[in-house]
Amino acid sequence: MKTFYALAAVATLAAATLADSAHAALIMDTGTPTGSSTPLSLDAIDFAAAEFSLGAGQTITSIQGYFTAGTSNPGDTFTVALYAGAAAPDVRATPIWSGQATFQADGWNGLSKLSISGLAAGNYWAAFEVGILDSAMNLALPIGAPNNGATPALAYAFNNGDGYNINSGFNFGAQVSAVPLPGALVLLMSGLFSLGGLRRKSLNA
After folding, report:
1. Which tens digit of pLDDT belongs to each residue from 3-31?
2. Within this chain, do residues 116 and 170 fall inside the same structural domain, yes or no?
3. Would you say residue 57 has pLDDT above 90?
4. Which residues of 149-159 are buried (b: 16+ CB within 10 A; e: fewer)?
5. In this structure, are 56 and 154 located in the same domain?
């Protein structure tokens, strides 16, 4: 019985996660780039970032960039990072969060099913980088994203080894999705309810 209730708790958390993800909304969406100009090329020193605004209590669930292979191959890895602040991150900046993503195919690539919470309302940068543990080489970011929808990027920046510098011409494709605080609370409370039931059953056994 204990195993049953433990599995029920896990199932409840999984179901809540799926329900929560269904309510995620794009808080930055530049649109798909046209690729009309020479793409940006990500490598060990060349990175790109796009700025967006996060509301109070929002939990980030997905960060995506629009890539083509360049000289990389499916399965090669790159890093997705978050920086805080309205100013472009300088060369000494440390990301407040980062994770490794895998290039799958030309199109939107990045990380989903995230739960990045506890961030204050304000401006942040979604960055796409190649770290020392990544295998991507010259992964291409096509430019020419329209960036004229309901949730455009606030700014673009490029790092060629000396820190990020604002450059509006580097309008690559980027998307960030998030859920509001109530969704995160539902997830937490569902898990606690199931675990509380498990605890009561254990005491009565």
Report:
1. 444 444 444 444 444 444 458 999 999 99
2. yes
3. yes
4. eebbbebbbbb
5. yes
Q: Residues 128, 194: one domain?
A: no
Looking at the structure, do residues 19 and 102 belong to the same domain, yes or no?
Answer: no
**Rounded Cα–Cα distance for residues 145 and 173 (Å):** 6
Q: Is 77 exposed, middle or buried (0-12, 13-18, 19+ CB in 10 A)?
A: middle
Whether 174 contacts 65, CB under 8 Å: yes
Burial class (CB in 10 A: 0-12, 13-18, 19+), 13: middle
Q: In terms of domains, do 114 and 33 share one?
A: yes
Scanning the chain, the segments in alpha helix (DSSP H) are 2-22, 181-204
CA dihedral 36, 37, 38, 40 (to 10 degrees): -90
Claim: this prediction has a pTM higher than 0.70: yes
**pLDDT score of 14:** 44
User: For the segment 175-190, what is each residue's pLDDT rounded down to a tens digit?
Assistant: 999 999 754 455 555 5
Q: Are 68 and 132 in contact (CB under 8 A)?
A: no
Which residue range(s) make up the domain with 112?
A: 24-179
